[in-house]
Specification:
Layout: E1 9-15, E2 21-28, E3 34-41, E4 44-47, E5 52-59, E6 62-69, H1 72-90, E7 97-98, E8 101-102, H2 104-118, H3 121-137, H4 148-160, H5 166-174
Antiparallel strand pairs: 1-2, 1-5, 2-3, 3-4, 5-6, 7-8
Length: about 180
């Protein structure tokens, strides 16, 4: 079972008086609705039209801050969507698509299911190990976010962390 937290915080990155950009929680009404452009700074509500909203959550134990745009209502909608996604993952339900984006975990699960049906058990085991290592090395959540640099990091991870031989690294990369 996944022990990852389902909590998603909505923050706004604003420019402080000293010129630095910092994250602060958004202010809410008594009924829990977001108050556009209002943030809590040291317990006090302040208006800040500048900056953008961010979702903050944990993925594989690492804090992730994901840009949610400049519109407060859209940011709240993205927060609710992310909470639903994390709740589904927490319950063991693979989430294949969030909006127009496919999660890496769900894509791997679907791919391995297909491999299990079409290949021998030994091939499935090799693919499964390779993809498990890739997930361990890659912190990206969506397939669309993966690029060449992630593959290079995966190669270095196999070589340095898993101490794989060059041929083993190549075999795992090409799967």
């Amino acid at each position: 079972m996944n022990t990852e937290s389902k909590a998603v915080n909505l923050l706004k990155r604003i420019k402080t008086t000293d010129g630095s950009w910092l994250f602060f929680p958004v202010a809410r009404t008594a009924k829990g609705y977001i108050r556009p452009d209002l943030v809590l700074v040291n317990g006090q509500v302040e208006r800040h039209a500048e900056g953008a909203y961010y979702l903050e959550f944990r993925h594989k134990g690492k804090r992730i801050r994901q840009n949610a745009g400049k519109d407060a209502e859209e940011a709240q909608r993205q927060k609710e969507t992310k909470e639903a996604e994390l709740a589904a993952v927490h319950a063991g339900v693979p989430v294949v698509q969030v909006g127009d984006r496919v999660t890496l975990t769900a894509a791997i699960a679907a791919y391995l299911e297909e491999i299990k049906l079409t290949k021998k058990a030994k091939t499935y085991a090799a693919y499964s190990t390779s993809l498990e290592y890739f997930q361990e090395s890659c912190q990206k959540q969506y397939v669309q976010d993966i690029d060449r640099k992630d593959m290079l990091k995966f190669h270095a991870f196999l070589r340095d962390e898993k101490e794989q031989a060059p041929r083993s690294c190549w075999n795992k990369l090409r799967m």
